[in-house]
Every structure is written in structure tokens, then in C-alpha cells.
Design brief:
9 strands, single chain
Length: about 260
């Protein structure tokens, strides 16, 4: 019963609403009323009078952490941007990573070709958008000197983002990434790691060895880890550390052997 209740709450929140958020909204109402009264009595600027039609209740933000972030994405995106920066890449190709994180960071440093299965109705200097599937990338063989795919491959084949349902989608996606990576080039992969399982229809969580097997033929340059605590990047982690996670984030840096080396 002790383990069942949290699971039941989690299922309820997935299909209906976040109970924690509702709790914080209710506990913040008296702060909202107090602040509204104080502001109304103190304000002398007509243009900033409180208008009921413009009320936007957010007093519950007081119970959030300062600068609340998604720890996986926050640390992963910094790691990836620093890595690409260290390679002095002037052009980069990304497949489906977070636009308001890693891609935004990178656009301050280089041009980015961004590929996603969904449409992108914005125009940004330096961003070249191509709509396409990671299973059929609109790129030639051996053409990407630097390539990234962060917190994406675990979703492929589950239908979550409008892609086709395919239990082998993640392995097929890995083969496409290998295909387009240039010999001597760098590939950055971010993916959930820990106790291997499927959380349908959100994502897969991989044993780190599964990821290494998916990208067989590439050389692993770096494996770092964001563990369950999510407070920092553990640089040059080992596989056993990742296996102890319930849901960590594995940061894999691969390179494709040069043609001469492969021969």
C-alpha cells in the first residue's frame, strides 16, 4: 500500500491535473488577496490600476524554487553547448533537441541546421529548419562534422510526437545518425539512463550499455552523467554509476573513425 499510493497519484496527475500545483494555488490565495489590497492602496499610477479583466493569478510561484529548471535539460544543454564551442564549429546540425535551451545557446556561436518531424513556424537568424524524420534524415552520407540529438532518441517509435509507432525506432534512429556523421566528426547524445524499461508513451530509459551498442562502430570519447539528484554533471562517469539511477541522464560524446582508420 505504501508504494501503491504514490503510483496511483502519479497516474491521476498524468491523465487529469497536478495535485501539487492545485495545492499551491489554494495555499496562495490569501497572499494574492493581501498583495492586491496593498497594491491597490499604494498605487497612484492610473495606467497601472488593477483591472479585473487583466487579472493573472500567479502568487503560487512563491513556492517554486528560484529560477526553476528541468535539471536534465539544464545541465545537458550547457554540457553540449560547451562541447560544440570547444570544437570551434561554425556550422552545426541538430536533430530535435530543445530549441529554448541547447539550440538557443548554440545560435550565439554558430549557424544551426535544425531537423524535427513537426513544423516550426518561426524565423531566427542563423537557424536553418528542415522538417523531416530522424528515421529518414534529409542529409547525405558522411556530411555532418558536428551533430547532436539530445533527449530525443528515447522517444522514437512511440508515436508521442506524431511519428510512426515502431518498437525498434530508437535503433533505426541511431543508424541514421551514424550514417550522416562525417568521419572524424562528433556526435552528442543525451538520453535517460538507469534501470532499463519503457514508460509508454513518454520515453524509454536505457541501460548505458544499450546506448553503446546502438552506436556500435563509433568511438566513445566521453560519458558523463546527471544522476537522480540532478544537481550537477558527473564528468567521466562509469557505467555502474548510471545503472544505479532510477532515471538519470547519460551524456555520450562519440566520434566516427576516419576512413583510413576504419580500413
Amino acid at each position: 500500500m505504501k508504494n501503491f499510493l504514490p503510483k496511483l497519484i502519479n497516474i491521476f496527475q498524468m491523465f487529469f491535473f497536478d495535485l501539487g500545483l492545485v495545492k499551491n494555488k489554494w495555499r496562495s490565495i490569501h497572499y494574492f488577496i493581501r498583495n492586491l489590497r496593498f497594491y491597490k492602496n499604494a498605487n497612484s499610477k492610473v495606467s497601472f490600476n488593477i483591472q479585473w479583466q487583466d487579472i493573472c493569478y500567479r502568487s503560487y510561484d512563491r513556492f517554486c524554487l528560484a529560477g526553476a529548471v528541468d535539471n536534465h535539460y539544464f545541465f545537458q544543454d550547457i554540457w553540449a553547448a560547451k562541447t560544440i564551442c570547444s570544437l570551434h564549429a561554425r556550422e552545426h546540425v541538430d536533430i530535435g533537441s530543445r530549441l529554448d535551451g541547447f539550440v538557443a545557446h548554440l545560435l550565439t556561436l554558430s549557424a544551426v541546421t535544425y531537423i524535427d518531424v513537426r513544423p516550426l513556424p518561426i524565423i531566427v537568424d542563423g537557424l536553418n529548419f528542415l522538417q523531416g524524420s530522424i528515421l529518414r534524415l534529409p542529409l547525405e552520407d558522411d556530411t555532418c562534422k558536428t551533430l547532436s540529438c539530445l533527449h530525443v532518441i528515447e522517444h522514437i517509435g512511440l508515436g508521442r510526437y506524431g511519428d510512426d509507432v515502431d518498437p525498434d525506432g530508437h535503433t533505426k534512429a541511431a543508424k541514421e545518425l551514424i550514417r550522416v556523421l562525417k568521419p572524424g566528426g562528433t556526435l552528442l547524445i543525451g538520453a535517460p539512463v538507469g534501470r532499463e524499461r519503457l514508460c509508454f508513451d513518454a520515453h524509454r530509459i536505457f541501460d548505458p550499455e544499450t546506448v553503446l551498442h546502438m552506436f556500435e562502430g563509433l568511438e566513445l570519447v566521453e560519458f558523463s552523467l546527471i544522476d537522480d539528484k540532478g544537481q550537477r554533471i558527473i564528468e567521466n562517469a562509469n557505467i555502474e554509476q548510471a545503472r544505479l539511477c532510477e532515471c538519470g541522464c547519460g551524456l555520450f560524446r562519440f566520434t566516427k573513425p576516419s576512413i583510413n582508420k576504419r580500413d
